[in-house]
Design a protein that fits this description.
Length: 531
């Protein structure tokens, strides 16, 4: 127990970027109860929850990416080396939330003062167990912060039950606007709110419906989407156009964003959690390491972009920079190196024939941060200075469309068309349009919704989980499109039904996970692969 008290104290005192120093009252002998007395202590514990939330939550799976570059490592997405992970990040988050819940009776504050911290802990546990279920399937269920016995994995259905239990309790959270007004502490959209809890439940029920085959959960997921869209759980609204999605929604704290993970490099935040770090290059980055013809990065080709985003889809020019320009230039402008598709009168450093370059230039994430060092003639890229948006309103519209389509409801097209209306600026591409006919989507509204999610949410970390959710419907004979074997890579195309049922779509466990817990078991698929 002393070991865990030391760890606990270290965490609380180490997260100085989020909390004030904790004033712990001395007693005749140091006891565990010292740390659970005041509202300030509760706030420090919550800061620990937020810290571990940031460390744990990263939606991206290597197979999520639309990647045309066959030489990039992402295409080796069924290699055991790239598909092993551990429960530890989620375990830390659950443990920290349990510290609040298990010691609630020790605090010398009123129930009303304590309630916000309990609700945040509920939300954190709901999130942690849901992500465990999505990433690993079977996973341990931690009993409390004072129980340190070895635990085996519980079946995925029980892990999802646990997530559902805590997420439902988190629905008592206030709306985000009320959350900000009710507390003197800083509250950002990483904190749980009623809207974030509703989004969690919407995704959880959609996952249970798709992956577990619990068809009644489609209706439940639809209802939580409705609550968000109708403004019952918070004030959310769509950005006006795709350009605003890039400049505002993908930055931080927009009205379209429901839940996001905080990240601010400028303030000294060195936690690397933003997936775009791996994908953003020229022209967002114009230092010498990033040129238009880089071949080592995961890439989406211009031909793919033009196919996915036909003429009139304003997302193409917002999400990607100058896809069809004849030439691109690096120039000095007011002492800064900038990219341009026009030669102009500025000092041109180098020019490139854009038509000879296959890869498109991702422009969806636009807020890089540079550090300047005396030993370097140019700045050093230090990460994207923007939050990681997990759930936003446009995504919820498309999730509700999916839920309705799975239930055979004709109004699924209403939500699909809401997102298309913003993308095109009018109703000229309402479903079914000419492109739907050309792409064979008229008879498959579900596939049309998947394609829209693929476009709208490109590089935001949803695509792989959309494939799994829909792909399991195919395995049960509820769909005609084989998402898993047609939408990822040749490696996934070779999976058998049994491989999928044995856990090929989940992460395997790293070797060190078994060193201190001989009750854990590798899932059947990865156990075979690692023999």
């Amino acid at each position: 127990m002393r070991k865990y008290i030391y760890i606990f104290c270290f965490v609380l005192l180490g997260i100085t970027g989020c909390a004030d120093f904790i004033d712990v009252r001395p007693e005749n002998s140091t006891t565990y109860t010292n740390y659970f007395r005041t509202q300030k202590d509760a706030e420090a514990l919550l800061n620990g929850v937020m810290y571990y939330m940031r460390m744990a939550i990263n939606l991206r799976n290597s197979a999520d990416i639309v990647d045309d570059n066959v030489n990039s490592s992402i295409n080796n997405n069924l290699d055991p080396f790239g598909n092993l992970s551990s429960f530890s990040g989620y375990g830390d988050l659950i443990y920290q939330a349990n510290l609040i819940l298990d010691n609630a009776h020790r605090f010398e504050i009123s129930e009303e003062e304590l309630k916000p911290y309990l609700l945040q802990a509920y939300f954190a546990k709901g999130v942690a167990y849901f992500f465990l279920a999505m990433k690993f399937g079977d996973a341990p269920i931690m009993k409390s912060s004072t129980s340190f016995e070895k635990l085996p994995q519980s079946p995925v259905s029980e892990v999802l039950d646990e997530a559902e239990k805590w997420a439902l309790k988190a629905m008592d959270l206030p709306k985000y606007e009320e959350l900000v007004q009710q507390t003197s502490e800083s509250r950002m959209k990483q904190y749980g709110s009623k809207g974030a809890a509703a989004a969690l439940l919407a995704h959880l029920y959609a996952w249970r419906a798709g992956v577990e085959g619990k068809c009644e959960c489609w209706e439940k997921a639809e209802e939580y989407c409705r609550m968000i869209i109708d403004g019952e759980v918070g004030n959310y609204s769509l950005a006006t156009d795709p350009e605003e999605v890039c400049t505002s929604v993908m930055h931080r704290d927009s009205e379209e964003s429901i839940w996001e993970i905080y990240h601010n490099v400028e303030s000294g935040d060195l936690i690397t959690l933003f997936p775009a770090n791996s994908f953003v290059g020229f022209p967002v980055l114009t230092i010498s390491s990033y040129t238009p013809d880089n071949t080592w990065q995961p890439s989406i080709y211009k031909t793919t972009v033009n196919r996915m985003f036909p003429g009139g889809d304003r997302r193409r020019d917002a999400y990607f920079w100058e896809t069809n320009a004849d030439s691109v230039y690096l120039k000095y402008v007011d002492g800064e190196v900038v990219a341009s598709a026009e030669r102009g009168q500025d000092s041109v450093i180098v020019a490139y024939d854009n038509q000879s370059i296959k890869r498109a230039y991702l422009y969806k994430f636009r807020y890089p941060f540079y550090m300047y060092y005396d030993w370097s003639p140019e700045p050093s890229f230090s990460g994207m200075n923007q939050n990681k948006v997990i759930w936003r309103l446009a995504e919820i519209y498309l999730l509700r469309a999916e839920c309705r389509a799975r239930q055979g409801k004709a109004n699924a097209v209403d939500d699909l068309n809401t997102v298309r209306r913003r993308a095109y600026g009018d109703d000229s591409h309402a479903y079914p349009c000419a492109e739907d006919v050309e792409n064979g989507l008229v008879e498959d509204i579900q596939l049309a919704i998947f394609r829209e999610r693929e476009k709208e949410l490109l590089y935001e970390g949803h695509r792989y989980y959309d494939i799994v959710r829909n792909g399991m419907c195919y395995l049960r004979g509820e769909d005609t499109h084989d998402y898993i074997r047609e939408e990822i890579s040749e490696a996934y195309a070779r999976l058998t039904d049994q491989d999928i049922l044995d856990g090929a779509l989940y992460y395997g466990l790293e070797d060190w996970c078994f060193e201190n817990n001989d009750l854990l078991r590798q899932n059947r698929y990865w156990n075979r692969r690692m023999q």
